[in-house]
Amino acid sequence: MKIWIIGAYGIVSTTAMVGAKAIERGLVENTGLITAMEPFNEIERIIPFRFDFGGHEIRLLPNAFVACKEHWELNRHFDFELLNAVKDDLEKISASKGTALNCGPGIKELGKIHTLEDEELSLKEIVERLMKDMKSFADDETVVINVASTEPLPKLNEKFHYSVEGFEEMIDRDAKEFATASMLYAYSAIKLGLPYANFTPSVGSSIPALKKLAEDKNVPHAGNDGKTGETLVKTTIAPMFVYRNLKVVGWMSYNILGDFDGKVLSAKENKESKIISKDKVLEKILGYSPFSITDIAFFPSLVDNKTAFDFVHFKGFLGKLMKFYFIWDAIDAIVASPLILDIARFLLLAKKKEVGGVVKELAFFFKSPMECETMNTHEQFQILKKWFLQLAKA
Q: Which of 52, 110, 220, 238 has its CA 20 to 30 A from that of 285?
């Protein structure tokens, strides 16, 4: 199958590419892949583990190998022999120029960038370029995944964001102040009939106009914001307090990270949507809102080694207050990149089985899953498993 990645030269994207090609060559095990476990490994007979990659990017680099080597030199996040072994594959992956429209001040932290809006194109011209690039790469086995940097919260407008006709009028009228890059990427993919996933907290395909477009064209899509680290632990542990009838009175989450992700999120506007995504899961799991503090801070020397410190204050029998602590310390690209491959395969399976619209059963992979109120990781896994078994047998 083919995966078109938005943010193709990022550390998550390039690590996914290295992993896919290394597994294909039998150089490493498939640890970390959900689709490698029973019963999901049945997907192999429908969608074999073989990938081609392309994508959009705003960083000016010649190919994915150069991008990945840059990330590797900072992080040493896998054996260099693996990168050398797949060098030829990565050098063939050269991303097309993308858009960073209304992506906030944090995007400047990526260094020298080149975007379609630099060419003073209209919204219609930007969309036409995005669609042309995707169409030149895509076939019937292609999925589009957004792994780009986090955007600020958008200016939602009843006229432009709540109907397909309104969204297309926004494009025709060149109302750039109401559009964001993630919306335009999602629109372009869905319009072409390509399954789409939003691995970021950005708005992507979650606005009503694009949900309706996906339903009309019977295109599967999913999101938002990949659940890979501290929130994964939070949504796994929080149900324990529910199961034992313990009252959570306060939950503090403090996240520190470096690399390009940390640089972008150091801008207040960009960080806001990420914090909202991380923070709202507790109420949905617990059924009430405890006092909470969620913060994300840039810590340069950590690069992609994201670290989270969580403190939980909870009340037990006889009203006694007690404490629970945990520390999450992981290379973000290593825990996130296999999910890109999993989500792509599940979305292609959905397309092959003629499933369209929001695939809410993929909530297991996201912090803010669309059209799913279940945030409990245990329950989400069972939902995913049941959905897969039904589709695989269909």
A: 220
Please check whether residues 161 and 193 belong to one and the same domain: yes
- Going from the C-alpha of 35 to that of each of 30, 318, 360, 377, the distances in angstroms are 9, 45, 18, 17
In this structure, the answer to whether residues 264 and 304 fall within a common structural domain is: yes
Amino acid 277: pLDDT = 58
Distance linking the first and last C-alpha atoms of the chain: 21
Same domain flag for 270 and 384: no
Report the pLDDT value the prediction gives residue 281, as an integer from 0 to 100: 87
| 61 or 264: which leads in pLDDT | 61
> What is the pLDDT at residue 107?
72
* Domain co-membership, 71 together with 164: yes
Name the domain boundary from 279, 304, 330: 330
| Structural domain count, the chain | 2
Sequence-distant (6+) residues with CB within 8 A of 54 are 2, 3, 4, 5, 8, 93, 95, 96, 133, 137
Rounded to whole angstroms, how far apart are CA atoms 127 and 191?
10
Last residue in a domain, options 307, 330, 353 = 330
Query: Tokens for 78?
Result: 């896998």
List beta partners, residue 198: 146, 223
pTM: 0.94
CA distance linking residue 165 with residue 374, whole number of Å: 32
Co-location of 306 and 369 in the same domain:
no
Containing structural domain, residue 309:
230-330
Cα distances (angstroms) measured from residue 241 to each of 46, 289, 376: 40, 14, 12
- Strand blocks (E) in the chain: 2-6, 52-57, 96-97, 142-146, 196-198, 220-223, 247-257, 291-298, 305-315, 321-331, 357-358
DSSP secondary structure string for all residues of 204-257: TT-SHHHHHHHHHHT-EEEESSB--SHHHHHHHHHHHHHHTT-EEEEEEEEEEE
For residue 72, give the CATH number of its domain: 3.40.50.720
pLDDT tens for 227-261 read: 999 999 999 999 999 999 999 999 999 999 887 77
Mean pLDDT computed over 87-97:
98
Q: What is the DSSP letter of 62?
A: S
| Closest residue by Cα to residue 62 from 92, 98, 99, 17 | 92
